[in-house]
Amino acid sequence: MARRVTLQDPTTAIKYLREDGGVILTNFSTIDDVEKVNADAAPYIDAILKDRARKSLPRETTRCTRLFGRSTTAREKWLQQPEFLQIINYFLRTVSIPYNDAHNAEIVTDATLSAAATLDIGTGVKAQDLHRDEFIWQHTQTNKNIRDEYEMGQDIAMGVLIPGIDTWRENGATLVSRK
Question: From CA 17, how far away is CA 152, in angstroms rounded?
Answer without folding.
Answer: 12
